[in-house]
Amino acid sequence: MTSPARIVHVPRRFTVEEWGGTETVVARLLEQQLQQGFQPEIHTSLALCNVQREVWHGIPIRRYGYTYPFFGLNAAQRHQMDKKGGNLLSFSLLAALCLRPGVRLFHAHALKRLGGEVLTAARLRRKPFVVTLHGGVFDVPAAELAQLTEAQAGKFEWGRPFGALFRSRRVLHEADAVICVGRSEADQARAALGHDRIHHLGNGVDAARFAGGDGAAFRARHAIPPGAIVYACISRYDPQKDQLTLVEAFEQLAAQRPEVYLVLAGPDTIGEYVTRLDARIAQSPAAARIRRLGSLPPDGPDLPAAYAATDIFVLPSRHEPFGIVVLEAWSANRPVLVARVGGLQTLVEEGTNGLFFPVGNRDACARQMQRLAVDAALRRVLAAHGNELARTRYSWRHIAEQTEAIYQQAEQHARHRGSSRP
Question: How confident is the model at residue 339 (pLDDT cuts 50, 70, 90)?
């Protein structure tokens, strides 16, 4: 008898309107699994989306009601938890996972209570359980952790018994495989968890899609002159991404170079941060040369066009497990300038496929931006090496093949675990 082909993926939320790195990874991986003859599907919460059932690119999506088990949360706090890091609880999702027929494997893309629910369903069904750490657990700055729990601070948490019931704190210890997108995260996970089921697997990119954007049309649409040197950061608006430092560095550069422009684009996760960012841009002498855009649809023409309109891509993150937007910039044959942090340190090689600056250092960032502005030959070299790397090492097909190998190891561990059960 052949093994069931249904692979159940459970992210905390999944909606095109709030698209980010996790959504990209889940979507592209599932597209590859579908092409390989499996039956991938997404089960998630109704956070930021009220459509219970839909099919996206041939992939079924089912969404379930949920709650945040804290007394005293107002609507704004619940919305903030929907946007980022909310520790939700969904009994209907757990029931659906327990009853779903023909499951080969459960793959969680979240931890905490939701990850515990997926673990519980997998154990009850005697199926392999895999979890991916997209945002990091062991390699997260204290400020980021504080921000994740800000909305629930001072609230009585009535959901603790359910966390204990679902063994939420044991998710990584009991998983049949743990996938870390960052190498540093994987190293720290091995040291902390003490088992050998930790795998480092970076993200991928559809290089061909980002190679053909209409940069001239994008520039015309946003009133950017054809001869301008354009810096861009395409990422969600969040203190973690630190667009404020980039704006301040750009202001220094713009005072010397009238031909430079800055494009910022992405969804917002922290409203207060967006307010601060807009206020800083408004008071800047270079405000007329800064374009702050919203989220660019992941499957529309605007995203590759934005990269094509860019001369230099900048990612000033204070915390970055991997940096999938770097792959997108490379695929568009653009040089990258990134903060020396997290997974960016292993993804980018200084002077070969990109340049670094110290985290949060606007002066150093401005100097590197100036260096790239005046050295077109360096831009071409960095872009060419990055492009080759994106095309050869980070294809989604390659990532899916490696994921399948991890699944098979997880299945072997699950069988061994089952055979050793008293």
Answer: very high
Q: Which residue has the tokens 């980039």?
A: 246
Q: What range defines the domain where residue 143 resides?
A: 6-204+395-414
- Say how far apart CA 257 and CA 252 lie, in whole Å: 9
**Count of residues for the chain?**
422
The model's confidence at residue 318, banded by pLDDT at 50, 70 and 90, is very high
What does pTM read for this prediction?
Answer: 0.90
Residue 3 has pLDDT above 60, yes or no: no
Instruction: Give pLDDT tens digits for 30-40.
Output: 999 999 999 99
Can you list the pairs that 361-366 forms with residues at least 24 positions away whose Cβ atoms lie under 8 Å?
A: 361/245, 362/245, 362/248, 362/249, 362/252, 363/249, 363/252, 365/245, 365/246, 365/249, 365/314, 365/316, 365/337, 366/249, 366/250, 366/252, 366/253
Residue 262 lies in a domain: yes
Residues 220 and 183 in one domain: no
Written as one letter, the residue type at 381 is V
Q: Residue 265 is part of a domain; what is its CATH number? A: 3.40.50.2000
Residue 419 falls inside a structural domain: no
